[in-house]
Structure to design on (403 residues):
């Protein structure tokens, strides 16, 4: 498709410098109508200025959608059922938001008759892959326009010069070089690039916005109880909450105790390493609580298989394959394991750490009568001799062969 064949494009729009320049550039380059879409995923900032800015730039169709409940209910919670961690540490806060944004973009494209979608992700990062794999999975014939892979505006100074030449409003602070880039939603906030590119340099304490320094956290621990039903959290300290409200509540509790910071050098899907600093307070608390509840509910074989599947599942989300058949297959298996994961966990938070100090479930398969070190009538300790000898057979044979 040539440039002139694009009639209408749906742009994932934040109202910031990059996407404002993209909006004008799309019109200038493709001579097309631009529909803007701004998603409220709980990033903690007012989104009406994005609508107002789009209006000042002459956009006729403007979408500003509150997707917070959908984000947590249909994306974060299903992912959390897997206890997903990319490379053993990252809770996938940015990764899990992209398929929802992409899905809504495609829905808007259908509603408005658009023949293309566009995003502001650069050609070096993971987000371009996540957005576009989702677009194509949902609408195979959609045209995707990725300005950072097409234009020659390869630096912030060029973006600013382009904006000033065309009288695009620029926030005053954007003229200076920001110390890092951020991405935020209800699950997390990330910091990357520029001042953080040297992995030897410790992040500035003033950077953090969702967690206090563990050193400055309260000197007394706090206890919180989380109720789960079929793998998903439903209540905090006995108060039932919607998915988004529950995660927001846990963010506040964990953040006050400095829980949820991560400084990570990760392997991007595109092949390079990247240093990211993350704050995921409520998610960190939920992960520890979920695993504590599963420890008394899941059978050993099911629990171990689930842990074996988790890295593959997490990698699929990190790489942008949320809408792939293999992710759906794994999700079905994970969800099957959660049928009995209901109960309550009591968590203790103190100085940047959180851990389970109590867990109970009507479906618990933990029995004191079996686990006790005292005399019992349910376990004959002599049975262990045959069990050990059978498991030792192959080792003894190796020894007899002199190996």
């Amino acid at each position: 498709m040539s440039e002139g064949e694009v009639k209408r494009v749906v742009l994932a729009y934040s109202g910031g410098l990059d996407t404002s320049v993209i909006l004008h550039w799309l019109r200038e380059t493709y001579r097309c109508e631009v529909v803007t879409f701004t998603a409220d995923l709980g990033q903690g900032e007012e989104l009406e200025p994005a609508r107002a800015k789009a209006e000042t730039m002459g956009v006729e169709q403007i979408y500003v959608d509150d997707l917070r409940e959908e984000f947590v209910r249909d994306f974060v919670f299903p992912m959390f059922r897997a206890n997903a961690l990319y490379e053993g540490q990252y809770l996938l806060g940015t990764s899990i938001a992209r398929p929802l944004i992409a899905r809504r973009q495609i829905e808007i494209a259908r509603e408005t008759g658009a023949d293309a979608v566009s995003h502001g992700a650069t050609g070096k990062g993971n987000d371009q892959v996540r957005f576009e794999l989702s677009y194509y999975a949902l609408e195979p014939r959609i045209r995707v326009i990725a300005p950072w892979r097409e234009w020659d505006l390869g630096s912030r100074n060029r973006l600013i010069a382009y904006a000033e030449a065309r009288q695009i409003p620029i926030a005053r602070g954007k003229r200076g070089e920001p110390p890092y880039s951020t991405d935020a939603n209800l699950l997390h906030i990330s910091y990357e690039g520029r001042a953080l590119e040297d992995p030897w340099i410790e992040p500035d304490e003033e950077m953090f916005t969702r967690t206090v320094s563990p050193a400055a956290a309260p000197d007394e621990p706090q206890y919180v109880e989380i109720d789960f039903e079929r793998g998903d959290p439903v209540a905090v300290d006995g108060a039932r909450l919607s998915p988004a409200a529950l995660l927001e509540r846990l963010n506040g509790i964990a953040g006050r105790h400095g829980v949820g910071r991560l400084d990570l050098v990760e392997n991007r899907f595109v092949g390079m390493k990247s240093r990211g600093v993350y704050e995921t307070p409520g998610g960190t608390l939920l992960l520890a609580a979920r695993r504590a509840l599963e420890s008394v509910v899941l059978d050993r074989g099911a629990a171990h298989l689930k842990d074996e599947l988790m890295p593959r599942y997490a990698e699929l989300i990190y790489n942008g394959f949320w809408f792939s058949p293999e992710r759906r297959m794994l999700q079905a298996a994970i969800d099957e394991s959660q049928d009995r994961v209901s109960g309550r966990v009591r968590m203790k938070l103190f100085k940047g750490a959180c851990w389970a100090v109590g867990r109970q479930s009507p479906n618990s398969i933990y029995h004191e009568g079996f686990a006790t070190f005292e005399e019992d009538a349910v376990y004959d300790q002599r049975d262990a001799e045959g069990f050990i000898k059978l498991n030792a057979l192959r080792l003894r044979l190796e020894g007899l062969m002199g190996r």
Notes: The chain is about 40% helix and 20% strand. The mean pLDDT is 93.
